Amino acid sequence: MRIIAIGDIHGCAAALDALIDVVAPRPEDTIITLGDYVDRGPDVPGVLDRLLDLQQRCRLIPLRGNHEQLLLWVCEGRRELFSDWRLGGGETTWASYGRHLPEVLPARHLQFLRDCRLVYETEHHFFVHGNYEADKPLDAQDPYVVLWDSLKRRVPRRHFSGKTAIIGHSRQKSGNILDLGYLKCINTDCDGGGWLTALDVAYGRIWQANKTGKLRGKQG
Fold it and tell me: Is 219 contained in some domain?
């Protein structure tokens, strides 16, 4: 059984396709996606459809990112956030659904976003989108910190549980994972010209693809 984390996808369906092909998930595998499926990239509906399909191939644990949270607020009627959402990357999501959001968001996509978790943990690792509070239990984390807080603002120390944190959100424009030992950030800036990263958290194997679907090569 493998436990594989995938970083911020941001509408890059071709990159996600390439990683799924090379990782070749098996029914006994667990894949944790770290949020930010929507906005900025060209094919948000394709990303969500592929993740829904992936649920039939393996155990998929999708986490919620700040971009999903903002989209959900817009879909729940908070129209005052519509401009902020579009300016923050939502323009591509809006365009990919024919500029009729939130009215035409398919029910299956909306339910997928609503079902996303904030935190997930295994025996040796835990997974969040943005950041964490080192002194708080994982089931008591502040949603704002988990969704919005950036490593640029605050690098946390090791969580008191001793588990290794696997996070996204904070862009690593070098295209390489930020590895602090106790914390690994795998948002390697796919939509910005970098790579989408998949990491086998137990063995350290890395797969990366760019937004056109070209593989960087197997690492680790």
Answer: no
| Number of domains into which the chain is organized | 1
In percent, the amount of the chain with pLDDT more than 90 equals 83
- Angle separating helix axes 107-115 and 44-54, nearest 10 degrees: 70
Range of the structural domain that residue 145 is part of: 3-209
**Residue 214 resides in a domain:** no
In a domain, 205, yes or no: yes
For residue range 44-59, what is the model confidence (pLDDT) as tens digits?
Answer: 999 999 999 999 999 9
3-state secondary structure string across the chain? CCEEEECCCCCCHHHHHHHHHHHCCCCCCEEEECCCCCCCCCCHHHHHHHHHHHCCCCEEEEECCHHHHHHHHHHCCCHHHHHHHHHHHHHHHHHHCCCCCCCCCCHHHHHHHHHCECEEECCCEEEECCCCCCCCCHHHCCHHHHHHCCCCCCCCCCCCCCCEEEECCCCCCCCCCEECCCEEECCCECCCCCEEEEEECCCCCEEEECCCCCECCCEC
Has residue 218 been placed in a domain?
A: no
Residue 137 pLDDT grade (very low, low, confident, very high; cuts 50, 70, 90)? very high
pLDDT tens track for 50-89: 999 999 999 999 999 999 999 999 888 888 888 888 888 8
Q: State the CATH number of the domain containing residue 157.
A: 3.60.21.10
